[in-house]
Design goal:
heterodimer; A: Immunoglobulin-like; six-stranded mixed sheet; B: mainly beta; seven-stranded mixed sheet; four-stranded antiparallel sheet
């Protein structure tokens, strides 16, 4: 069965410093992995998606994530945090039956990113 | 960018009452989903819907829950007799294909008293 574990429930950084949000996955097959962001009173927005092409995936708003099979990790990074990055971030894996995606998404617990001025 | 619209944004109901949560998906989407997030817990899959029928549902999605797309536009989640533990944020999602980007609405916060 597929699952993701977000290693930090809360991350606090200063504006202008790097962001690292950690995620480990478990999947029987090569997974489809995503990062979603949720700003207060907003819907879940897709930041980026990995689907077995390039291992370094670039997303919106300067975020990127690197798929590392040897470490079963898909950490989200950004070189320089902005105040507007403060939000809840979810690492997500696509559910599978055999080798096929079901379309269902399996969410991690979420990481709250706080950005201090 | 087109948006998924959910109404209402907040719904308060008494235990045992029926509620209907409404979603207007993006017009060219074919796959539809409901997820929920109980306060402090993970976002959980409830049900997926394609071609006017349920394609997958979770253990949470018991006989108290139903979904339909009656007029080809609105996609609704009905809870027949709400329980306290149904209090959660409910998210509607849609996609053009099973492996396509999933767009979510901003959610309906359901409070069961």
């Amino acid at each position: 069965a597929q699952s993701v574990t977000q290693l930090d429930s809360h991350v606090s950084v200063s504006e202008g410093t790097p962001v690292l949000l950690r995620c480990n996955y478990s999947s029987s097959y090569s997974p489809s992995l995503f990062w979603y962001v949720q700003h207060p009173n907003k819907g879940l927005q897709l930041l980026l998606k990995y689907t077995s092409a390039a291992t370094l995936v670039k997303g919106i708003n300067g975020f990127e994530a690197e798929f590392k099979k040897s470490e079963t990790s898909f950490h989200l990074t950004k070189p320089s945090a902005h105040m507007s990055d403060a939000a809840e971030y979810f690492c997500v894996v696509s559910g599978r039956v055999g080798s096929s995606n079901t379309g269902k998404l399996i969410f991690g617990q979420g990481t709250t990113l706080q950005v201090k001025p | 960018e087109p948006e998924v619209t959910q109404t209402p944004s907040h719904q308060v109901t008494q235990m045992g009452q029926e509620v209907i949560l409404r979603c207007v998906p993006i017009s060219n989407h074919l796959y539809f989903y409901w997820y929920r997030q109980i306060l402090g817990q993970k976002v959980e899959f409830l049900v997926s819907f394609y071609n006017n029928e349920i394609s997958e549902k979770s253990e949470i999605f018991d006989d108290q829950f139903s979904v339909e797309r009656p007029d080809g536009s609105n996609f609704t989640l009905k809870i027949r007799s709400t329980k306290l533990e149904d209090s959660a944020m409910y998210f509607c999602g849609g996609a053009r294909g099973r492996n396509e980007k999933l767009f979510f609405g901003s959610g309906t916060q359901l409070s069961v008293l």
